Amino acid sequence: MSLVVWALAALISIFGALCYVELGTSIRASGADFAYLCYLKWYPLAFGFMCVGSVVLFPVAIAVQAQTFSEYLIQGFRIEICDPTAAFFAKKLLGFALIWLLMFMNFFSLKTFVSRFQIVATFAKIAATSIVIFTGFYFLIFKGMTENISAPFEDAKFSVGTTVTAILSGLFAYDGWDILNYGAEEIEHPRRTMPLAIIIGLVSVAVIYLATNVAYFVVLTKSQILASSAVASTFAQETLGGFQYAIPFLVSILLVGSLNGSIFSASRYLHAAARQGHLPPFISCANHRYDSPRAALVVCTLLSMAMSFAGNLDTLINYAGFAQWSQRACTMCALVWIRVGHKPVHPDAIRTPIVLPIAFAIVCIALVIEDSFPA
């Protein structure tokens, strides 16, 4: 059942990505959803979602990724902290240290150190997932290990509420396909760059995620997956012998890459809101030598640290999912309004069939309603 949820989340994300490619090439302003709502002068909605995004959405995403990084790094070093309070603060401090390090990296141009580091993180992501996928399929094909997947729907408990919650968690994992929209003004040749980067990247990620989960289910039992706070590490312990010690570090590096992307998006979002006068003016300050919104970077770092104390990972992900999909529902309504009202956009914009943003808007609204009023 979980593989079905992963596939549904991938399909929804691909539809959304296509809609955001149209928005990014039509309205070439940084800030993504905030910029698009401001373009239509929907300032109350833009301001409301700006507040939610600034205080909840981006800080939660950064807090979740930083906490997950800490989990894997501690497992990689085989550190056992018996005192729950000490373990709690150790994970927080590790996550905070990473956030501050990435903040300082983002003080410099995207075209220099940050982009090079992102390449390293991408290689780590490919290496870690490739090892898991090939190992899992080796056990499936050559070892004939099928007992964990012989009855895929056994003991499956279906309800609309739990399924929607699971889809929101899956969508959170796929998130990032709109990252280029946050820095649209910094992209050269967006008509070519945005669809290639977003669609090819997202389809590749969807295939990798599905294959990785198949590998997990081949090797691990349901109870092992549910009990593990770092599934890749548990998988490595079961299959890779001495090489298992490398997996947590590879996963940690790829999480650093994801976290770097979240910090990039959050800072550009805050910077765009401050330029529109919706946040204190000092947040709009940028370093012109490196074209870096340094004040916004500091603010988003502090907010993320505060949000990390709001609850456990599942709670944080639910908060973020509700906020994000409410915002995207309004953004899709804005895109439909632009198309129906024939609003002027960039002449080089990419157009998708009108049914696509309408369908995606309906999905967004359904997810938000069901998450708000579960059965």
From TrEMBL:
Subcellular location: Membrane
Organism of provenance: Toxocara canis (Canine roundworm)
Matches recorded under InterPro entries: AA/rel_permease1 (IPR002293), AminoAcid_Transporter (IPR050598)
Protein's membrane topology: Multi-pass membrane protein
GO function terms (MF aspect): L-amino acid transmembrane transporter activity
Example of a GO cellular component annotation carried by this entry: membrane
Main location: membrane
Protein keywords: Membrane, Signal, Transmembrane, Transmembrane helix
Membrane-spanning segments: 43-64, 85-105, 117-141, 196-219, 245-266, 295-313, 350-369
Signal peptide as annotated in the record: 1-19
Entry protein name: Y+L amino acid transporter 2
